Amino acid sequence: MSTAADTKAVDRAEILAALDAWGQGGAPAVVEFVAFVAGLVRDSDDPRGVLDRVHRVIGQDEVRRLAAHHCLTVLTADGPNSGLLGGRALVCERLLIVPPGQHPADTLADLRAHLARLADVAEPARALPQIAIACATCGARPGDLCTSHSGTRPRRHNTHQTRTQEWTRVRAQLGQVTTP
Ligand SMILES: [Zn+2]
């Protein structure tokens, strides 16, 4: 019969084997890093937790670097309106607004999706921050373009003014700016 201790021993052995394979033939800095992580895994009662924390730290570093590259400051949306983000990170003005507790891998995916949308010049309105919330005028859902003429014509370059105004109101209450 398997116990929690057995499971952890199996986890530890599997993780150490994977780290060993990862470090094989790597650059000296990689080998050193892998050996450091392996040491943490060996000493910990929670080998999977160690791996998750390492994953988060690496992801956070990548988020910071990509955000800095695009001149964005990282903001954690811990204010009363943070639920309006719908669990997704978004870019507004020069801010990367991140829902509290979001895994860095998901933040990266949201940021990359935003950058890809920016590159899509056919629909520049998709890069506007107010796209993150619904439009009260035309009923566009969060993430969708506003439409004119009873929904027959998508507005590719802008949104309804009410959506912009609502966003400005929501934005003011999202949360505090954090220093990356
Ligand atoms: Zn609209």
Report on the structure:
The chain is mainly alpha-helical. It has two domains: 1-45; 46-171, no CATH class. The protein has five helices and five strands. The protein has helices at 4-23, 28-43, 47-69, 104-119, 161-171; strands spanning 73-76, 90-92, 95-98, 147-148, 153-154. The strands form two sheets. A three-stranded mixed beta sheet has the order 1-3-2. Strands 4-5 form a two-stranded antiparallel ribbon. Strand 4 (147-148) and strand 5 (153-154) form a beta hairpin. Helix 1 runs antiparallel to helix 2 and helix 3 runs parallel beside helix 4. 19% of the residues are buried.
Gyration radius (Cα, Å) is 22 Å
Bound molecules: zinc ion
Terminal-residue CA separation: 47 Å
| Helix content percent band | 40-55%
- For the largest beta sheet, what order do the strands appear in spatially? 1-3-2
What is the succession of H and E elements? HHHEEEHEEH
Main β-sheet, in a few words? 3 strands, mixed
Instruction: Tally the structural domains.
Output: 2
- Could you report the average pLDDT, rounded to the nearest whole number? 86
Strand content: 5-15%
